[in-house]
Amino acid sequence: MFKSNFISSFFEQVEKQPLETAIEFEGQKMSYQKLSEEAHGVCAFLKRNSAGEKYIGIKDEGGFQSYANIIGIWMFGAAYVPLNSSYPNGVVDGIVDELGLKTVLSKKGLKNISSVQGPKFIDGFVNGELAYVIHTSGSTGKPKSVLLSHENLNAFTSHYLNKDKYDFDSSDRFLQSYDLSFDVSLFCFTIPLMIGGTLVLPEDKGVKYMTVLSSILKDKITVCSNVPSVVKYALPRIAEISMDSLRYCFFSGESLYGNWAKAWMVSAKNAQVYNCYGPTETTIVCTTEHLNILELSYFESAAPLPLGDSFECMDLVINKGEVCFKGPQVFTGYANSVKPKVSIHDDLFFPTGDMAFVDEKGKLIYKGRKDEQVQINGYRVELGAVDALIQKEFSVLSKTMVVSNFGKPDEIVSVIETDEIQILKVINHLKTCLPEYSLPGSIFLTASFPLNANGKLDVIALKTWILEKLKAW
């Protein structure tokens, strides 16, 4: 088992291959030595200006500097807090207030920081407990600060650096498919920089899935991680391209469907493909299903693909239908709220809020969110069941939620991502499968769901869109 941490592994690569490329961005290259120098400069700057600070903000502006900032912050002994440039000012202000942020590093502010004479690595590194803070908004829109430690991150990276599972090496080129405010971004940059590989940053322009596909082809990417939406929107084109350079592909962040994965695997015929799962609180992902050896019947179903087995360091149990975890990847806690826990067989587990079951073949299948079990007019309604019925019958995606319609009673509303279906057919089908109290009061069609910066469904934006539709009625 690989047990080294990021900082020691990165500086081993600096010593071993200082002139090799650590990061590529828009035709420019940064060597391991240069990245080390920039990180030392950041550390020196923080020692002089931010002594005693536990959290350091980073403006997520892309480019080389963000990664020098992260490494420098870790050398300094603090946790980094990504501040997405798309965040509303009110959200940023809330994060700053909650964590007491005093220092926020930006690309512009550190333009010449490498000229600062930083300390030597051995003397300058402080072993801080916390590594990073990720904010999850859920359905409320109010950010919640999830605190992740170096111990959490080390447990995660140890899984991927286990040669018995994955054969990554210094020739691999990893694509950064995410903004730093999305936790899977850590997989994309920690693993290559620990093994002497290259991190490739795609152009920050155009449609997200197009930039991912373009970079895979143009930059000869060998390892990528994506949200399944990338495949969904690429389906019309994916049969026309061959992603022959890919050796490994990982999917996470939302449900991956069999027909999507099947199309991707035909195009990436040389790749080992994995479906992964894990909430932010369990450090990026902590289960994995190897799709290349998965029974073919799963790819013919309209249901989501299995979530896979838990990582070797993690214990997974299903408690009253809810996925619960225990192990070194489970987060430290929230900044200003209680860490949830549940006692199972006299042991404490983290309840994820995700519902799942084990099918007849022993595979873990996602069922929906616990908070999608709502009470309407005294009845318990499973919103995920409505979406599952629509998906299975019509092979389209839908999102069902409860909205408060301007002082009127709460209403179940379904939005279907298509403009080629008759709503009456959907209603009639649901009536044959569900009791009347579970039926949507309104059904809307949309050509495409609103997505956030990382390609996942933007639930807040969708709810706003629904309310505008209801108001217009």
| Largest beta-sheet characterization | 5 strands, mixed
Report the CATH architecture of the largest domain.
Answer: 3-Layer(aba) Sandwich
CATH secondary-structure class of the largest domain? Alpha Beta
Number of helices, where a helix is a run of at least 4 consecutive DSSP H or I residues: 14
CATH homologous superfamily classification of the largest domain = ANL, N-terminal domain
Q: Overall mean pLDDT score?
A: 87
**What number of domains?**
2
Rounded to the nearest angstrom, the distance between the terminal CA atoms is 60 Å
Overall structural class, as computed from helix and strand content, comes to alpha/beta
Please tally the β strands and state the result. 25
The proportion of residues forming helix, as a percent range, comes to: 25-40%
Keywords:
473 residues, alpha/beta, Rossmann fold, GMP Synthetase, Chain A, domain 3, 2 domains, five-stranded mixed sheet, five-stranded antiparallel sheet, 14 helices
Structural description of this entry:
The chain is an alpha/beta fold. It folds into 2 domains: 6-358, ANL, N-terminal domain (Rossmann fold, 3-Layer(aba) Sandwich); 377-472, GMP Synthetase, Chain A, domain 3. The chain is built from 14 helices and 25 strands. The strands form 7 sheets. Strands 10-11-12-13-14 form a 5-stranded mixed beta sheet, with helices on one face. Strands 15, 16, 18, 19 and 20 form a 5-stranded antiparallel beta sheet that branches. It has a 4-stranded mixed beta sheet with strand order 2-1-9-8. A hairpin with a 2-residue loop joins strand 1 (21-25) and strand 2. Residues 110-125 have low confidence and may be disordered.
